[in-house]
Design goal:
globular; mainly alpha
Amino acid sequence: MDSNRLLAGVACGVAAGALWGLVFLAPELARGHTPLQLSAGRYLAYGAAACALIAPSWRRLRGALGWRDWRALLWLSMLGNILYYLLLASAVQLGGVVMTSLVIGLLPVAVTVIGSRERGAVPLARLAPSLLLSAAGTACIAWQALATTAPPPAGGSGAASAAIGLLCAFGALVSWIAYAVANKRKLAALSHISPHDWSLLTGIATGALALLLAVPAFLLPHASASGAAGPSWLRFIALVTAVGLLCSIVGNALWNRASRLLPLTLSGQLILFETLFALLYSFLWEARWPTGLECAAVALLCASVLSCTSAHQRRA
């Protein structure tokens, strides 16, 4: 792997994280709508846009994929999009943001450790400084969240709901790890399919699955969020369309490109940029400067990615 390939892959991974970070603002901008509605709306928009964009090359792509490839697309769409988002939203509702962020913060470390077991990967010992920096940055974020989160009200959901929320958080973690590993391997096996085309094909599969979510999300009477008096559906449609286009189509295409260019040990660390940009957008939305712990977290996470990139440059 040469330096140009390495830098191009890192740039694509950073850009994907910048777009994915916008997803964390969506629930705040769409108050009055449930996570199920946000998920269904986002992925329906993703599927519709993917169908429109892929139409000129549909005949060529259809002939280039076999039944196993389509089955893999459905499976990857379920793992990395539908199942991950629903488990994540359930974990936040049942167990809280702090617990969920602690569990999901293990994602870059877990993917990097798994990637170190692949043939020809950078040894785990050389990646140890990057992993330690990543863990320290995640700890700073968790500590800040613990310091600023209000205690749960009396008569809350209780230990049973918290335990279910913890299981959902770990389920989301496992779901995205499985997606990251399987998606990279599938892209490596389909060298004749571009990362952008693969993203569009994933959008078609995800949109088909999102049709199943649309019934409970929009048609069942209990789907409406409590206290949502007259939510703005025009704003909701504009929001999920923007998220579907920017985060799913463009962001996923950039991530697929990074996955093809980089080893799993490095692309796993680049997932940190989703957290970094989510923090940045949160500061801008709340119109405030970051705290000392938040500044330390950003510095540690950036140092983690730089350390991991340096280890791979030395290997190259």
